[in-house]
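notes to self, project folder thing:

trying the whole complex as one job this time. last attempt i did each chain seperately and stitching them together was a nightmare. two parts in total, labels are on each line so i dont mix them up again. if this works i'll redo the older ones the same way
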Amino acid sequence: MIQNNPIGRIIAHIILIVGILIVAFPIYYTFVASTQTLQDIIRPPLSLLPGGHFWENYSSALFGGISKIGGVGVDRLLLNTLVMALGIAIGKIIISILSAYAIVFFRFPGRMFFFWFIFITLMLPVEVRILPTYKIMVDLGLIDTYTGLILPLMASATATLLFRQFFMTIPGELVEAARVDGAGPLRFFKDIVLPLSKTNIAALFVILFIYGWTQYLWPLLMTNRNDMATIVIGLRKMIDFTDATTQWHLVMVTCILAILPPILVVVLMQRWFVRGLVETEK
Amino acid sequence: MASSKHVTFPNKFLPYLLLAPQLAITAVFFYWPASQAIQQSVLREDPFGLSTQFVGLANFKHVLNDANYLNSLQVTVIFSIATALIAMAFALLLAVMADKVIRGKGVYRTLLIWPYAVAPAIAGMLWLFLFNPSMGTLAYLLRSTGYNWDPLLNSDQAMVLVVAAASWKQISYNFLFFVAGLQSIPKSLIEAAAIDGAGETKRFWTIIFPLLAPTTFFLLVVNTVYAFFDTFGIIHAVTRGGPGKATETLVYKVYNDGFVNLILGDSAAQSVILMVIVIAMTAVQFRYVERKVHYG
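result (full assembly):
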């Protein structure tokens, strides 16, 4: 009855459309720029319609190598970033699901101690311990390696907490039934817990993939070589406002290629993403 | 449900094995560096690492009396408040509108969640492409109206630019939470108010907004944490803390002092102060969660 207000609804649509235009404009503008020549980009104002250099710019950025970063191609940067994002997402899910399983389905000395041991790391984001962590990585010889990019970001209390929360809702009768049937803890994990956790795993995967893909400070410290850089770091290295040799058309292409994969993941896995987001934070 | 006592497996060795990977990573990459940060914060070391001496709380004293540090604290507070307020207000407006429309809800949501997937550093670059004085089209338009726009030289404009990029990136997150919050408000309450003759604006401020308070408060904490820590990429990619030190946030300063200027003791002391800030924020967040359980 209160929804019966067509004018109000039209205004709502207009505000939403304006909001979407504001939200989408920076991305659209960069896409347009990525299809123009260098000369057109550095001479504002830029046309608001895509130019005709799409294939040329994209293929030269992807496969031609970019001189600003020592001839490394964007394909290599994309590969590095993909390895890092997948490594973090999958690694985190595996170690958290195992530790949450141990904490919920077993009673053993030190259980609560270990729970708090993991829980407290919520309060130590990488930003507050960068220098000592960096030193440790140097000592372990992990600079410019995938292990160095992935491993330190793999431990997370949030994923463990989420799985713990979920496991506690699995009825004790199920465990009893499994034990009566002679199924051991590993069998129970594989046949019951894992299938039940599917949605949670999918949701967490989206969140963690985005988390890994968008890392900045850590890859900035961990990589010196251009061919080990992630795409965001590579992009940063290509840009120099004081230098006339910046290849802006390739910068724009790289920018679009850097945001396309995570956007696709979010949009295509939207259902799990929204669920995961709202649940991990609660 | 009441009978659902917790059943567990009797096993002595397996749980430790399952916990081992996470514990190992946590110990090596969390506790070891954190303890080193604390240790380093009470030592003074020359940049070549040749000699160290114990100096007690001198590093903290030095940091807290440093005009640059206090400036960066102020910058961080202004930056965080501005970012949180803008990102939340804009998201709330869009969420309220999305709650009103009947058709196209899903489409609007899909089109509004993109920025979540954009790395903060790239969000900064996107805005820089639009607004940098040498080639940005919007900067060009601003300047052609006679306005002296140059965020690379003017500190206030630099701040406006990083706040815009930081809040743009956060809109989608806030939007999703406000939409969820709005959906959980019982429609009957709003209809009852409508029957009593409360207009739309009045309904929003007297019913919807107060009932959204838990969501709003939660988002305020999350956005502040985001502005404190996750925006390093924006600052590093867009302004490098400049012009001068106008956009040097606390996290940027830890990085800059530790890696660029090699003042290790000060950098470690700053890390420890940041740890205290994170712990305080997390505590606030949990107190809120607890209260919600009791009274919600």
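what i see at first glance: Chain A touches chain B through 102 residues (CB under 8 Å).
need to look closer tmrw
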